[in-house]
């Protein structure tokens, strides 16, 4: 306890000031800190507690800040990398699905284009497909789209030869519906 700055003369670098609780005490001047081991006010940076290696030193505090910063940075980078990986896998799968869909559409469009081709129209219009009566038909009917798929659109690679009734094509049975063939 002190009443005037003269009461603090035994404590160098201190003066008599009021504390938070209203009592007057000898407090260290600005840029000075209380050194409990020497029982006096010392210049900031000269206290033994701020020497490297002591607990609570400035170096330990800064190394804690660096450690915390490093942990935050590594965590943030990990989250970004994981999120990026998830997004890239999603986009890659979507691209593969789109390619598959486009391939299926291309195949269907080829069949439809073939149905519009002159070769198929001539074949249909030739009149060779007319039956004399309902009793003469012993074979099942196949729709044109199934025949086009089974013969790969009357591809020359599937043509086996030429007969008295026209060209003969090899049929890929796995492409016909199950009810149309006895595979």
From TrEMBL:
It comes from the Eukaryota. InterPro entries: Kinase-like_dom_sf. GO terms for molecular function: ATP binding; protein serine/threonine kinase activity. Gene3D superfamilies: Phosphorylase Kinase, domain 1. GO terms for cellular component: plasma membrane. Keywords: ATP-binding, Kinase, Membrane, Nucleotide-binding, Serine/threonine-protein kinase, Transferase, Transmembrane, Transmembrane helix. The keyword Zinc does not apply. This is Uncharacterized protein. It comes from Quercus suber (Cork oak).
